[in-house]
Amino acid sequence: MTLVLGEWLVTAGASDPQHNSGVRVTDGIIDATGTNDELRVRFPEDDIVDAANHVVMPGFVNAHVHLYGVLAHGIPVDDAPDGFWSFLDDYWWPKVEDALDHDMIAAATDWVCAEMLRSGTTTFFDILEAPQALPNALLVEKEIVEKRGIRGLLSFEATERAGVDIAELGLAENVQLIEACRDSDLVSGLMSFHTTFTCSREYIERAFGLAADLGVLTHAHCNEGLHEGAWCEENVGMRTLEYYEKLGVAGPGFLASQCVQLSDREQQIIAETGIRVSHMPLANCEVGGGIAPIPELIAAGVTVGLGSDGYINDFFEVMRGSFLLHKARLLDPGTMPASTVFSLATEGGAAALGLERIGRLDVGWAADLQVVDATFPTPTTAHNLIEQLVLWRNHTHVRDVMVGGDWRVRNRDVLGADLDRMQAATHEQARRLWSS
């Protein structure tokens, strides 16, 4: 049993921070919370982790990441994409996804898992699309994720764009991973397919059917830019979410990522049917997709999580982007308060991924936590702490990280990780990708 005693305890974004308070961890679960003095008296025999001048708070939940994306950072580009379709068809598919192999996937997975851990992320959902790396690409990821000790949901972005054989292998890859993780404490899987414009009606219906049989969510990218909505209007006579509603697959079992360019009716469908949404504010900017109507979706009761998309994985930066962008879009400094953004980055992400008792530091919830430097230029109070965290912290301020009751980062060191070796491996595989 361990007591983690901080200057501040944040149990959840919607709860008031507690001064001079901490948590008790037993068998991977939060067993008690309270003031430091109370916990010391109640549990005098427990080990103590002194987090003076630090905040004890939930680990982040990255609800959407592409681990392999790190290999594309800095890739040479002769002709820069001039739109979303150009980004996919001229750049991302041929130069990145279609060139990936198992060695590249392994190096990227190892590095990004460590990168996420040292910035306070304890849970993530990865979407891999690597048509030429099938089969068993997800098993490569699974082994590394388990070694790093981070909580991961894995999926393969199945698609028909690369032909019938690879389309079948993509669905089978998801099924194999989901079944292989039945006894895993940390790793599990979701069904995933790409989009309406790379998957036929029959293929989409099969993906949802397989997911229902396996008892998991189905994920797809949705209206990341203008292209998909326009494609659906031209090819099926309706907008993307209207099409999913017509197919009978719009509902709580559907995790729709991005959701940037939505009509009023599409927003209504998401809210009415219970579709879950993951929001990638920084990556949406990078690809020129736009800014998703997240405040409107939240106001309508939609379950929303926050994701990095594999672009910038420091989740403090992702929170900051969400905090600022929507204020600019709506010309309203009061929209997306820090407490809401913090909730999206923790329990909101867990809810979007269908995970229970993850993302808060309440009794009975998973002991997934981080210890963050609380030394700010101005006085810290209960009313300003979460905003201070969202605006003025980054990965360099994360001291310790625990996943399921086990320490994975101590004193800013990722335990069991040779970062120099891992970085060298990532560099080697990035060069291979770039040269291909």
**How many strands appear in the DSSP assignment?**
18
Q: What general outline do the C-alpha atoms trace?
A: globular
User: What value does the average pLDDT take?
Assistant: 96
Find the structural class using helix and strand composition: alpha/beta
Q: Any idea how many domains?
A: 2
Comma- or semicolon-separated keywords:
22% strand, 9-stranded mixed β-sheet, 40% helix, TIM Barrel, alpha/beta, 15 helices, 436 residues, Urease, subunit C, domain 1, 5-stranded parallel β-sheet
Concise account of the structure shown:
With 436 residues, the chain is α/β, with parallel strands linked by helices.
Describe this structure in words.
- The chain is of the alpha/beta class.
- It is 40% helix and 22% strand.
- The strands form 3 sheets. Strands 1, 2, 3, 4, 5, 15, 16, 17 and 18 form a 9-stranded mixed β-sheet that branches. A 5-stranded parallel β-sheet has the order 10-11-12-13-14. A 4-stranded parallel β-sheet has the order 6-7-8-9.
Describe the SSE topology:
Layout: E1 2-9, E2 18-19, E3 21-26, E4 29-35, H1 36-42, E5 47-58, E6 60-65, H2 84-95, H3 102-117, E7 121-128, H4 137-148, E8 151-156, H5 164-180, E9 187-189, E10 191-192, H6 201-214, E11 218-222, H7 226-235, H8 240-247, E12 254-258, H9 264-273, E13 276-279, H10 281-286, H11 294-299, E14 304-306, H12 315-330, H13 338-352, E15 369-373, H14 385-392, E16 398-403, E17 406-410, E18 413-414, H15 419-435
Parallel strand pairs: 1-5, 6-7, 7-8, 8-9, 10-11, 11-12, 12-13, 13-14
Antiparallel strand pairs: 1-2, 1-3, 3-4, 5-15, 15-16, 16-17, 17-18
